[in-house]
Amino acid sequence: TWPHPHANCCRLWSFDEWKQYLDWCRRRRLNVVLLFHDDGGYSWGDAVFDAFPQIPKNDDTLARFVTDPTWRTELNKQIIDYARESGLKIAYNLFYSQVPEFVADYYPDLEVHPLRMRNVGIKFTQPECKELMRQFWGAILDTYGIDDSHIYIACSYKHELPLPDYVDSRNAPTLEMID
Predict the structure, then answer these.
(1) CB 156 within 8 A of CB 139
(2) Tally of CA atoms within 13 A in the half-sphere of 9 that contains its CB
(3) Over 50: is that where the pLDDT of 133 sits?
(4) How far apart are CA 107 and CA 130, in angstroms?
(5) Which of 149, 151, 104 is nearest to 129 (CA)?
(6) pLDDT tens, 35-80?
(7) Span 147-157, mean pLDDT?
(8) Torsion (CA) 36, 38, 40, 44 in degrees, nearest 10
(9) Beta-carbon contacts of residue 63 (< 8 Å; ≥ 6 apart)
């Protein structure tokens, strides 16, 4: 049901496959695991529902995910715990203004533009954007935890799709959000 060609990558791995990958990273002396690049909120599991409680977890919203978000949340916790126990740092890869496309259905006044992987970008000049990102990123961090070894990667680069005229760069709003 996922109409994107990248669906055969790590977002469908079992814990055993993740464990093999994390063990490989450790053996190769890699020390950072990047979670989760390029698919916006879907790989963060239930975090989108935790961040936005007005969005129901129903057949329509669940159909947008590659895997069940509750299962994904539990898998992510296993991945992160195992990585930390193995001495690997976790890099939270967060995209400013990016949310799963169905979030916009519950915020009809938001101006959004399409992004890849069934996501949308909220117009960053809207005051709501900053608060929605705080809610979403906060739910991610609350769900999976932070420790002394975590790293944030807040992405602000242009996506492959042309962005609207009002977006010259996401650098300024991303830096503003982090402050």
Answers:
(1) no
(2) 10
(3) yes
(4) 14
(5) 104
(6) 875 565 678 899 999 999 999 999 999 998 888 999 999 999 999 9
(7) 65
(8) -20
(9) 1
Three-state SS across 91-151? EEEEECCEEEHHHHHCCCCCCEEEECCCEEEECCCCHHHHHHHHHHHHHHHHHHCCCCCCE
Mean pLDDT over 98-112 rounds to: 92
- For Cα atoms 58, 62, 64, give the angle at the middle one, nearest 5 degrees: 135
- Using the CB atoms, write b or e for 132-154: b if 16+ within 10 Å: bbebbbebbeebbeeeeebeeeb
Torsion of CA 118, 112, 55, 151, to 10 degrees: 70
Distances (CA, A) of 51 to 92, 103, 131, 141, 159: 16, 10, 11, 11, 24
Nearest to 163 by CA among 110, 128, 123, 108: 123
Are 76 and 44 in contact by the 8 Å Cβ rule? The answer is yes
**Tokens representing 133?**
């990102």
Q: Torsion over CA of 96, 102, 106 and 108, rounded to 10 degrees?
A: 80
**157 has pLDDT over 50:** no
Name 95's bridge partners. Answer: 155
Q: Could you give phi then psi for residue 154, rounded to 5 degrees?
A: -100, 110
